[in-house]
Every structure is written in C-alpha cells, then in structure tokens.
Amino acid sequence: MIGENGEQLGIMSSKDAYKLAREAELDLVKIAPTAKPPVCKIIDYGKYKYEMLRKEKEARKKQKSIEVKEIRMSPNIDDNDMNTKMNNARKFLEKGNKVKVTLRFRGREMAHMTQSKYILDDFAEKVSDIAVIDKPAKVEGRTLVLFLSAKK
Questions:
Q1: In this predicted model, what pLDDT tens digit does every residue of 88-107 receive, in sequence order?
Q2: Residue 19 and residue 55: Cα distance in Å, rounded?
C-alpha cells in the first residue's frame, strides 16, 4: 500500500485500504495487480489517467515512422532518366525512408526480363555510398523489385 504522498503504508487488507482512500476523498488504484501482494496506491484516478495519456502522447511524438518510397522504371530507361531517379532515391534515403525500386515490364519486354536485371544492379551500385540492399532483385509478376535502405 502506497499513500497519497508516495509514502509506504505497509501491507494491509483491502477493506482498510479502501477506508483510508475514502477518508482522503481519493481513489484506491491497483498499480501492480500481478505482484504478490498486489500494490495499491491512493490517488486521484482522473489525474492518474490524464498523466498516463500525456506520457503516451509524448512517447508517440518521439517515434519516427519509416515510409517505403517507390521508384518505378522501365527496362528501356535512358541514362539521364536513370540519374534523375537516382537523385530522387538519394533524397528519400537521406530522409531515412526505405526505397523500393521497381522495373516494370510490358508486352514483349517480358521475354527479356533476365537481361534487364543489370539495370537494378547498376542502380544499387551507384547509390551504394549511402544505401545498402535490404532484399536483392526479385521477380514479382511483371516486375523486378529491389529494396534499399540507408546506411547507418
């Protein structure tokens, strides 16, 4: 049992604890119900709930969510277009996001899937100074997919 000012009141029956809480016009709250014996505290429950919500909000503010940004290319991409896509990927990686690079195949391009894998390999090699490969290039339906994340 813990008093309203944080002092230890010792082990007592639940009736006595409830009586003390009523006298102080506060609530009896189980802080650690799984402990042997359970730990209870005399506090204002509304204030306690408010403090817990505030702590949760603070914890959520400090969390950083990582997004997965996608860069789409086709197998007949030109060098300048490739450089533009690489610059975009660099920006995403510098912000701490992961990058999903997809190489989309249409129609007759599907016959040359294996020859086009070098495009993703070159892409990964050119951004290797700030990125590492999370998942190597893999065929998923009509696309080749490569995942990159920022170096730590």
A1: 999 999 988 999 999 999 98
A2: 30
